Amino acid sequence: MINLIKKTRIFFLINILFFTSCNKETVNAIYPKYYGKSVLETAIVLNSGYFQNEKIDFVISSEPVVTKTLSNNSNLEVIENLTDKFSNKYNTNGFPQAGLFIRSDLDNNLDTTFLANLKFNLYDLKNNSSLNTVENINNLFSIQEQNQQLGYNYELIKSIQKNNRFGFIEFNEIKKEKLILDFKLFDIDMDHNIFSKHYEDDVAAKETNRLQYSVYLPSGAPTLAFSNLLKNENVNITTSSMISSNFSNKSADFLIIDAVTGYKLSKANSYSYKLVSMLTYGNLFLIKTRKNENYNLDQNSNIFSFGENMIPDMVFKKIYE
What we know:
Blueprint: H1 2-28, E1 34-36, H2 39-48, E2 50-51, E3 54-55, E4 58-61, H3 65-70, E5 77-81, H4 82-90, E6 98-103, H5 113-127, H6 132-140, H7 143-150, H8 154-161, H9 176-184, E7 215-217, E8 235-237, H10 240-249, E9 254-258, H11 259-268, E10 273-278, E11 285-288, E12 303-306, H12 311-320
Parallel strand pairs: 1-12, 4-12, 7-8, 7-9
Antiparallel strand pairs: 2-3, 4-11, 5-11, 6-9, 6-10
């Protein structure tokens, strides 16, 4: 009887320690408090320092918004490169961000000239070999068009791209098994059904200005991967919600969207789109809104992010959980 009581007490104490430990981890976690729908909204908050009349302490954003806002606001300070911090914590090299998806019924009948052009541009962007891809922006658009349609201008992009702060990778640099492992970091079991037959294709890189397919993509960094085609009528720079809607209505041939969201939407629609290639693999920063004030990042911080439950949000939470 005495032994039973002792065992019961020990079991009870172990449970208290376990739940105390779990609760401590939860209490110490740092999460964003407010969200915008797109990275462009982070620029507004960075410039004002407020969201819904609430003073914001830190903002999670990405290039080119980061460099553009910092150049106009001396009160801002980048305190963390979240790509580096995530990579160091999880012993990886970045995280899956923008991906290119092809409509499934087109996958078997694709003219790979499109992929050859993409491979040409991605190689140039990753290796900064000539900045030809960036030069296309200046050749195709006036300064006013660059700012209005793309959300950036040539000089800004050139300064950022010199160090590849956009996080571009080469065409299918990330192999299937590596991507599957990286998805597991976000507790996602990636199904092989998501991969296009052209994933890991060894196409020869070749620039072309011909585009017979419709492409829907967001403004910002991903547009550079198709910089020589942006004037083509088949290219649609649009909102993330419009891009997402295509997974069900299947009106576009190609979509650019964060790979995790694209995977989830495609799977929910019987794999309506297949992943052809990753485009970027880590472009995320944490900015302090008042660099001259003495405050630190903690559980009480007012943090503004974008894309709730999408890659920017998931990366930050995995770092500070």
